[in-house]
């Protein structure tokens, strides 16, 4: 059987991993990319393990990215993200991934796509999924992105070089509006559940935020416990589908499940409360400002999808939203500390009123990233159209 080679790099970015390609190493026609990406990651896999590919059977380990020359003058590179479904032949390009965004700058520097001098790199990244600009700052060592450092990212073992990511003007990334319906709280009619109050916010990625208690949860559940609670997952997917229709992202809830499983993301939120991390550490209420559990591609996330967390941080700063009502009262310039299954994530989110509307100026997060493997991925020729 003939296999085709595609040059690629396997990287960890934040709490996710992805196979990253240079645009020049892929076919010119992007319509052919899905078949390549599905074969590389090992999807669809009805067993949910992706053993015949590079994926890891969960959404955070089932990702690809393409990096190329910039298509706008204020950027150094273009970056396209693809979320690969595990059990379906779907690659979702409707949203960005904040975790993989942290790998883009180091990838571009190490590939020689962005020249650097001195001890710090500044890479301006144009995310083609959202048409937004991300500015990455990170240390340089011997002309390459530094790996070693003293920054600890909860959910990732060890320490690494800190990467600062500033997502500029993040509002309306998927729908064109920070508040897609113009309201801070919407009342959704969900079959089988009745009326559910939710905040629908679009910052770096569209998000749906509901109070945990409104859906019979606490926002302290372990991901594996949520995975076993098929009823809870079904309720959250029904709410997500109704919200997708209200936000204009899908014509029907069924379309949201079938064609756009990665956007909007849905999260349950709760006021600060005691919880235990996956590593067994105890988190006390005073250490956090808001507790959350997020669903990505139908699966409970082991940490938190970074674009979902950034959207939540912005939502928490908008007066009257569900997260805002539950969050600890903190100064406007303080980080919002989100408690998730792997620990705490602080984010800086700046929002302001402009007339009757809300505007998000930026969201800042910190991550680490590392190149894990480089070379070529092999794709069975039969998997490609026309072969």
Keywords:
21 strands, alpha+beta, 19-stranded mixed β-sheet, 387 residues, globular, 7 helices
Task: Describe this structure as you would to a colleague.
With 387 residues, this protein is α+β, with helices and mostly antiparallel strands. It is built from 7 helices and 21 strands. It has helices at 33-41, 98-110, 223-228, 230-246, 253-259, 306-317, 322-326, and strands at 3-13, 16-22, 63-68, 77-84, 91-92, 120-127, 132-141, 144-145, 163-168, 186-190, 194-203, 205-211, 265-270, 275-276, 282-283, 290-296, 299-300, 336-340, 343-354, 357-367, 369-380. It has a 19-stranded mixed β-sheet that branches. A hairpin with a 2-residue loop joins strand 18 and strand 19. Helix 4 (230-246) crosses helix 5 (253-259). The longest helix has 17 residues, at 230-246.
* Largest sheet features: 19 strands, mixed
- The total beta strand count reads 21
Order of helices and strands: EEHEEEHEEEEEEEHHHEEEEEHHEEEE
Helix content: 10-25%
**Structural class label:** alpha+beta
* Cα-to-Cα separation, first versus last residue: 12 Å
| Overall residue-averaged pLDDT value | 95
Tell me the strand percentage band.
35-45%
| Overall form | globular
- Poorly predicted regions are none
Radius of gyration over C-alpha positions, nearest whole angstrom: 20 Å
Show the helix and strand layout.
Blueprint: E1 3-13, E2 16-22, H1 33-41, E3 63-68, E4 77-84, E5 91-92, H2 98-110, E6 120-127, E7 132-141, E8 144-145, E9 163-168, E10 186-190, E11 194-203, E12 205-211, H3 223-228, H4 230-246, H5 253-259, E13 265-270, E14 275-276, E15 282-283, E16 290-296, E17 299-300, H6 306-317, H7 322-326, E18 336-340, E19 343-354, E20 357-367, E21 369-380
Parallel strand pairs: 2-3, 4-6, 12-13, 16-18
Antiparallel strand pairs: 1-2, 1-21, 3-4, 4-5, 6-7, 7-8, 7-9, 9-20, 10-11, 11-12, 13-16, 14-15, 16-17, 18-19, 19-20
